[in-house]
Write a structure and sequence with these properties.
By secondary structure, this protein is mostly helical. Helices cover 81% and strands 0% of the residues.
């Protein structure tokens, strides 16, 4: 039984993007399949995903935060400045030239203001990046998210729609900080227990399943509206998500070079900046903007799938580049 769960976990970890896309397609055809994923259920699922992240954190990871404060400060500042500004420029800036739906503007800004994605650590590992640095950046941005994310959304999207910054702060605190802290302390006290290690090993499978449920729930909730908007709306959303994500990778790498980081760190900053916790953005959009801006969850859901795909692609590109250089 355990070996089967471990095999499934490894398969899901290696094929996250394809699994998420498959769930999205199935849900679009059969929207009732995930209609139960909404409200508190959706929030609990994201909390569980963040718990699985906490289970991977160790005391040594906390020491990394303390021993490399300048590097992590630079990376985290890049995370919370570049992605929100890129999102604002791509949406609000372009809306003065071409018409862009308000839902797309709010959704992209929300994604841009969220902390680093939980799978970015895996991508850093795959491309021979600095994994400890990656974990440190993800942890720092997650810990700052309850304060920084609501403030950034209020600043950048407040003119588009009313933003409940205090409610968002409370929600992020509940679904990120608390679960991550619980997971960390469990790992600290039980990390050497063999049964606990086995549980840790299969957690990625449940994390991916949880993310799939969130994406499925979003598509189920906006299915009718999305169907009415048509293919053109979806393509415009994807185009902006693609540009936002790609510019994040490019400018993140440039920040690393600007501060004379080594190649491993440059790759890590690139991935950490480009990959956002779009699952958190999806839950926030569902909880705070569904009534006033119902389609804002679509850019978030699209980002959930695309960031996993693009992260895999860029990690494979870096690995290919090393192979070409005989490294």
């Amino acid at each position: 039984m355990y070996k089967s769960l471990l095999a499934i976990s490894k398969w899901l970890s290696g094929n996250t993007s394809y699994f998420i896309i498959g769930i999205a397609i199935v849900t679009y055809v059969c929207p009732d399949l995930f209609s139960w994923v909404k409200g508190n259920t959706q929030t609990c699922i994201l909390g569980f995903i963040m718990l699985t992240m906490g289970l991977t954190l160790t005391v040594n990871d906390m020491k990394v935060l303390a021993s490399r404060p300048l590097d992590i400060l630079i990376g985290t500042c890049a995370q919370f400045s570049l992605m929100p500004l890129i999102a604002y420029t791509l949406t609000v800036g372009l809306s003065h030239i071409i018409p862009i739906d308000r839902s797309i503007i709010v959704g992209i800004i929300l994604v841009g203001c969220c902390p680093g994605g939980v799978s970015s650590n895996i991508m850093s590992y795959l491309c021979k990046g600095d994994v400890a640095f990656s974990v440190g950046m993800t942890t720092a941005s997650t810990l700052l998210a309850p304060v920084v994310t609501p403030l950034l959304v209020l600043m950048l999207a407040g003119e588009q729609v009313d933003v409940d910054a205090w409610g968002m702060f409370q929600n992020i605190l509940i679904v990120t900080i608390f679960p991550v802290a619980i997971g960390f302390f469990c790992n600290m006290f039980y990390g050497k227990n063999e049964q606990f290690k086995k549980t840790q090993a299969v957690m990625p499978a449940f994390s991916v399943l949880g993310l799939a449920c969130i994406v499925g729930g979003v598509i189920a909730a906006v299915h009718d509206n999305l169907f009415q908007e048509g293919v053109l709306f979806f393509l415009s959303v994807f185009a902006i998500v693609f540009c936002h994500n790609s510019l994040g990778y490019l400018l993140g790498y440039s920040v690393g070079r600007l501060f004379h980081f080594n190649t491993a760190k440059n790759r890590t900053v690139s991935i950490e900046v480009g990959m956002q916790n779009a699952g958190l953005a999806t839950v926030l959009a569902s909880n705070f903007f569904l009534a006033t801006c119902p389609l804002a969850v679509i850019p978030c859901a699209v980002s959930c799938a695309w960031h996993s795909i693009s992260g895999t692609i860029i990690a494979q590109y870096f690995a290919w580049k090393d192979k070409q250089n005989g490294i």
